[in-house]
Amino acid sequence: MATKHKGKPNEVRASDAYISLRRAGNVIAAKLNRHITENNLTSGQFGILEALFHLGSLSQRELAKKVLSSKGNITMIIDNLEKQGFVKRTADPNDRRVFIIQLTPNGKTFIGKIVPSHIEKITQMMSVLTIDELKELKRLCKKVGLSINQEQS
């Protein structure tokens, strides 16, 4: 569905593109969230486990940036993952105010079993695009994201 906005042509084009982006993102997120909840995780928990799985140990601040979460929310998510035995906190030896979060062996095994099927689902959903279209989509999304981040700085 296109925008109902009757403004200037550039406003209509921007609104139409935004609506298409949001709808596609929402459909993808809904399908992936089903997979995540089937594994008894929230999307926030999955994001943290996946980040740690791919990037290794990170501080809470770094994790919050990676998964686009607030400090308060990240603390709650990590608390819950720690209770489940998937992550552990250790004080940064250089700054005791900072906690480093790392996967436990149990957490690494758990997320290691989920990630391949998660990637497979993403690959299936994106298979309607050619390689060049995937590259262009990535480039355009990155361009928009970076420009917005620069405006906020």
Description:
The protein has six helices and three strands. By secondary structure, the protein is mainly α. The chain folds into two domains: 1-38; 39-152, Orthogonal Bundle (Arc Repressor Mutant, subunit A). The model has no long low-confidence stretch (mean pLDDT 91). The chain is globular and about 55 Å long. Strands 1-3-2 form a three-stranded antiparallel β-sheet. Helix 1 (9-38) crosses helix 5 (105-126) and helix 2 crosses helix 5 (105-126).
What is the assigned CATH homologous superfamily of the largest domain?
Winged helix-like DNA-binding domain superfamily/Winged helix DNA-binding domain
> What can be said about the biggest beta sheet?
3 strands, antiparallel
CATH topology of the largest domain: Arc Repressor Mutant, subunit A
- Strand tally is 3
Query: Beta-sheet strand percentage?
Result: 5-15%
pLDDT < 50 runs, ≥5 residues? none
Record the strand order, biggest sheet: 1-3-2
* Helicity level: over 70%
| Secondary structural class | mainly alpha
Counted by DSSP, the helix tally is 6
Summed up, the domain count is 2
Assigned CATH class of the largest domain: Mainly Alpha
Cα Rg? 19 Å
CATH architectural designation of the largest domain: Orthogonal Bundle
Task: Summarize the helix and strand pattern as letters.
Answer: HHEHHEEHH
Distance between the termini: 34 Å
**Which of globular, elongated, flat, extended, rod-shaped describes the shape?**
globular
Please describe the structure with a list of short key phrases separated by commas or semicolons.
mainly alpha; globular; 2 domains; 153 residues; Arc Repressor Mutant, subunit A; single chain
